[in-house]
């Protein structure tokens, strides 16, 4: 009661009530997200305080956008979001698994089991499940030439949980090709080198991969070319505009002639930089049909644009900082900060550069590059809701392919791993545990089945019939998963349904760690 003295408004719960409050929070969040899971999951509509609408079935987006009040539910949401930050997927599965662990724990506690015994059993079951996962995973060899078919299967499995099948299958090739485009042997894959650009234009099936770069602006001079082939690309971070001095300065003149000389002196430094660029262009393009493009991170003023235009140079100013490194990786050459020592080695190459005008927006495409190490996924759609859904799906697809390349392993999907792991825990692990901790192992095993159960429920199938059917096949020594169309057992390997190894591992760890916190 000392807490009451310090704060009369404090809410005090005894041990049992606090535990049940935590369990109810987990169950409530599970109920909200469970209809998201799998290819048959439903899309949620989120309405913000200002009336803005967001349509999504991505668990990570939902958890970030929802206004959650309960502290336990907030912890679960943060755990699941951390799962997405680490592995790129598995947000909904993490929430479902934690919720089911709490549900199973509540059943045992109501029957008189002390939470300490359950935690001991969960610990044994968690370690045994991770060991089983190591044996259950399917190794994939990722050398200089990765197994493209496996990567397509893993990307397709992920994308089909976010989008309808036709679009998911189309995006599969785009996602795999994008990751393989930026992949360098013996180096981590940097997904920031894949630019995700969107245009509110045409339909979702018009989404495509550009092996090059798409810039969301165009040239600022009316006389510059709008299309050029066989282009040298100069990527630079050089000011090509008159800049005021950093201190307060002025000059005085007594005649118009003096004024003109002072104005020309001000421009001289900028004009010299422009002339050096023009000299390089004349040197490399002389006597050929080649063109020259300047993409500058800093500004280019109208007089400089006019000089470049007269020389037949396409110039883009104020390019985003993040695109400068991508340009070099896509086109080659190097980014220069000065025009004093310009050489041909500084230049990149693109077979085609053109400007696309969409309403009031301008886009510049840099395509047909020789050896791209950066690329752009150009997402198209008729409205912002469609574009946002595709963006979320593409990001998850990219992460799933990246995980597979780095893990060099995949796990059979469609609920096959969960059913097999449950059988292993009950048949082999439970016997090795003494006392009431066996109840914890059994509860953990039952909680694993939440994934195939939810897949069946979201597909409109009878959950009990599906689980019994899957377990019967596993008892016969067959590793099978769920066909969400018919409800019949299928071989996930033959159907090409795979999950990420690192995602499964993280889900198992996250569930146990959260239970310890409660």
TrEMBL record:
Pfam families, A to Z: Cpn60_TCP1 (PF00118)
Subcellular location: Cytoplasm
Claim: Electron transport is one of the keywords in the record: no
Keywords: ATP-binding, Chaperone, Cytoplasm, Nucleotide-binding
Protein name, per record: Uncharacterized protein
Keyword Nucleotide-binding: yes
Recorded family membership: Belongs to the TCP-1 chaperonin family.
The organism's taxonomic lineage, starting at the top: Eukaryota, Viridiplantae, Streptophyta, Embryophyta, Tracheophyta
Main location: cytoplasm
